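Predict both folds.
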Amino acid sequence: MDREQEAIELLKKYNQNHIVNLLKKLEGVEKQELLDQIDRIDFQQIMELYDNTKKEIEIKENKIESIGYLDKAKLSKEQREEFNQLGEEIIRSGKYAVVTMAGGQGTRLGHDGPKGTFKLDVYGKGKYLFEILKDNLAEANEKYDTVIPWYIMTSKENNKATVDFLEKHNYFGYPKEAVTIFTQSELPLVDTEGKLLISKDMKIREASDGNGGTYSSLRASGSLADMKNKGIKWVFIGGVDNVLLKMADVTLLGMAIDKDVQIASKSVVKANPHEKVGVFCKMNGHPKVIEYAELPENMAEEVDENGELKYGESHIMCNLYTIDAIEKASKEPLIYHSAFKKNSYIDEEGKEVIPQEPNSYKFESFIFDAFEFFDDIAILRGKREDDFAPVKNKEGVDSPRTAKELYEKYWNRQNKKN
C-alpha cells in the first residue's frame, strides 16, 4: 500500500472523509505537505480529546486542601538575606536560564502582530513588551555579573514576525548569542461533529497547544539539551505580557533551594473571592492550580483563622524549575482542556467560512498541570503592585491602561529608593 492510500485508510477510520476528498484534489508539493501533516498527527489522541468535550468536569471537594506559602513582605531580615545569597550564587555561576512564552497574538489588545511586539505607552515614548522583559534581564545581568541565557518560545503563527521584529530592533541590545528562539507544538482544531478543520493553505488547521506545551517544546526543539550543555540547573518560565515580571528573583530562587523543592512559584493574593484567576491548592496530596471556574463557590469564599482566603494564592505565571523537573514534565502527557471558539475554515466547495458563533474546539494544556507530577512546591507571595501588571484586554482590567499605571508607579517607587 502506498503512502497516499495509507493516509486515506487512516482518515476514513476516523471519519475524516472531507480530508480524503481534499487529498485527492491536491497535487505536487501541496499533496506532499498534507501527507506529511497526516503522518505527524495522532488522530486517536485528537478523537479522544473530542470525545472528552462531551463529558462533565468533576471535582471532588474532599480531595482539595489549602497550600502553604511564605509572604515575601513578612520574611525576617536573616531569612531574606539567606535566600538572596543562595539565589545569587546560582545566577552568578551561570546556572540559571529564563524562558519567555511568547506564542500569542495581540488580538485581544486590538494589536496586529505577536503580543511581545505590543508597545505600552509608558513615560511618553513607550516600550515594547519584549523591551520591558529585556530591561529586567539586563538589570539582573549587570547586578550579578553574568549573561542569563534567554529562550523565547514563539508559535508557528508568529515565529517569523517575532524573529523579524527582534532582528530589526537588534534584540534591544541583549547579546544575540544568548537568545534562543524555538516554536511551540500544535494540535488540530475540531468542529462539533469531530471533523478536523481545513485551513486556507489547504492543510489541516492547527493551533498552539497551550502553555503546557512549553515543556515538550523545550525538549523537541533541542533547547533543553542546550541548557544542559550550558550547565543550567534552574529555569524560570514566564509569560511575555506581565510588565512587572521579575525573571531573576533571587529570593524566590533561594527559597526553592532552601526548601529543597524542584518547583517554585510566585503568587499574589486574590483581589476578592471571585476574581477570575487560578489558585494554588493541594489535590490528592500534590500541588495544583485550580481554575476559578472549577473551584466550588463555598471553597472560593472560605477563610482561615487569620481571616485570609484559604484559596487565595493566585497563579501569576511566574514559575521556577530545576532542570530535572523540566525534563520530567517534558516526558509526561498533560491533561488537555478544550476551549470552544470561533475559527474560520475552508468548506468542501473550497470557500472560506468565517463563523459568527463558536464552531470548533481548541485543545490546550496548562503549564501548571505539570505541578501534580511533584510532591511539593515552594510558593512565595509577592505583591500585586510589585509583581503583577498583565496586558491582556483592550480595556478595563488587565489592560494597557492599568499596566501602564502599575509600571510607572512601581518604577517611581524604585527610583525614590535609589
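Second protein follows, with its predicted C-alpha cells after the sequence.
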Amino acid sequence: MTTQKRVLAVIMGGGRGTRLHPLTLERCKPAVPLAGKYRLVDIPISNCLNSDINRMFLLTQFQTASLHRHVQSTYHFDPFGGGFVDILAAEQTEKGSDWYQGTADAVRRNLLHFRNFPHDLVLILSGDQLYRMDFRLIIEQHLETKADVTIATIPFPASKVEGLGLTQVNEDLSIARFVEKPKDPAVINSLAISPKLQATLQSKSTEKHCLASMGIYVFNRQVLADALDNTMTDFGKEIIPGLLGKKKLFAYIFEGYWEDIGTVRAFFEANLALAQPLPPFNFFEPSAPIYTQDRYLPASKLNKCNIDHVVIGDGSILTDSTLHHCVLGIRSYIGEGSFLEDTIVMGSDYYETELQLAANLAQGRPHLGIGRNCRITGAIIDKNTRIGDGCVLSAAGKPDGIYANGLAIIRDGVLVVPKNSVLPAGTVV
C-alpha cells in the first residue's frame, strides 16, 4: 500500500487553550492566526499533504466555529484522489454525553469513524505546533524497526526540558523509559541520551541532551485499538507509559525547528521571529509549502512608511507610519503618524465600506484597525479591533493583569487587545 492508502492522520484540535487566553476567547488554539495570513492548523495539515498523506481527521471541541469555517473554505480535494480533512466534533452518543476527557479519550471515541477507511497506521498530531516535518521518514523508520508505536522526539539540553515529556532510549532507539514532565534534576539527568548517541546529533553542544516527546505518534492500527480499550484519557501521561514493556516502542529523532505554541509568550516570540531576515521557521520553502485559504485580496498599499523587519499580510493599508519588528495580518490598517514596535497586528476579517465608516465615526467608533498617532510596543492586537487616535499601549514595566476596563490584558508580559475590542481615542496603558 502507498503512504496515502496506508496512513490515517488524526489532528488533535486542542482543549480550552487557557494558557493562550485571551487569544482563545472566541476561537480554539488551532484557529489562532499565524504569520500574517495562516492559522496554526495549517501547519499539521500542510505537513501531511507534503508527506503524501491526504486523509486527515481533525478532532475538535471548544470554540470551533472559526476553525470549521477556515478548514471548509481552504481544503478541497480531487474526488478521484480520496483525500479529505474530516472535522469530528465532540458529540453525544448512546455511550456518553460528556466532552472529550483528553487526547486518548478523543481518539477512542472516534475509532468507529476511522474503521470506514482502509489503513495500517495511525499518525497522531497536535494542532498547535510550529514545525516542518516529512512524516514519510518517521513512517519509514517505524516499518524498518517493526515498531508497534513510534514517538517523534526532539533533542533538548537537559537544562531546558521543564514541562516536556522525556524518553530514555537505548542506542537502537528503542524506548526504555518514559517520564511525563519531570522536575527532579536527578531524574532528568538519568534520562539523558548516551554520549555515543549524542555524537550522532547535528548539534555539537557538549551539554547533556534529553529526547523530549513532540506529541507526535505513529501507531499500528490494532495496537492503537488495544491501547485504548480502557478508560485512560491521555497519551503522554497514561497510554504511552502503560505500553512500555508490553509493546515495541521506538523514538524517532527530529532535529529541525519545533515550537509548541502553548502560551501567549511562546506565540508572541514565534511570530515575531518570522520577521527576522533568516527566521528559524521558513515559510518561503518551495519544496514544502504551507497552505492556507486563498482570499483573492489586493496587494498591500504603503504610503510614506518607515519599515524595518516587518511581515505584512495581503490587503493591508499603511499610511505615513513607522514599524519596527512587526507582523501584520491580512487587511491591517495603520493610520498616519503611528509607531509600532515588537507588535503583532492580526488584521481584520472584512473591509469597512464608506457608509459603514461614516456611521461608525458618527457613533464615536474608531476606524477598523489602528488610528492616527498611536504608539504601540510589545503587543498583540487581535482581529477586528478598533484602536482610536492617540492611544499608547505598552506592557513594559507592568505586571500581568487587566487594564483599560478589560479592553487590554497583559499576559506573560505581553499586552493583548482581544478580538473585536474598541479602544477610545487617547487610551493609555
